[in-house]
């Protein structure tokens, strides 16, 4: 595969539409912190969560966002001074980010243990993506670069009969930023083009801050968790606005 392209794919919002599962996991975890929250997550909150999903970088944030929604905060209110809101809530509950990451992961583990089929069903792949990845693997090398914990990526890929070696799943467990992973791929595969497909504009902006990654081709996955405002900003940068049907049609360079 010396002439192949290295496809570096974000997971949530590119491969997997995990918004509903993330909302429910956030709610389940939240009920262990705030005892006034009932066991069942209201449908309206799950629906509102999709509107706020683009602001989330790492899954644990869903716990805090879900709490804000339960307290009646609007989508606009959550977006306003988001970082300050997160810090204030962490101070109030006396938990660290690492505590919340652990709680979020354990909540998922418990859900999988009690009803794996239901958990998988709440993590559907985007239409056509499974077939695309199987086809991609026949000629090109692809990997996942995500802030998700790796065991959950493996569960979802396995459930969809998609083979990907463990060493090609770069998740939270590695404690590497996405630019660091891309630099590692460049070192391992010198001279081969790298396509980074990501649905969050801040992640793409982060790559652009590293001059040594200037030759990595950047794609904003418009089918994922982003906003019209993100599209407008990306259009003025060296970022390709990618529609799902174009990605599926092999027009990124796969014959």
TrEMBL record:
Q: Which Pfam families match?
A: Hydrolase (PF00702)
Q: Keywords, A to Z? A: Hydrolase
GO molecular function term, any single one: hydrolase activity
Out of the domains of life, which is the source? Bacteria
Q: Which Gene3D superfamilies match?
A: HAD superfamily/HAD-like
**Name the UniProt record assigns to this protein:** HAD family hydrolase
In which organism is this protein found? Methylomonas fluvii
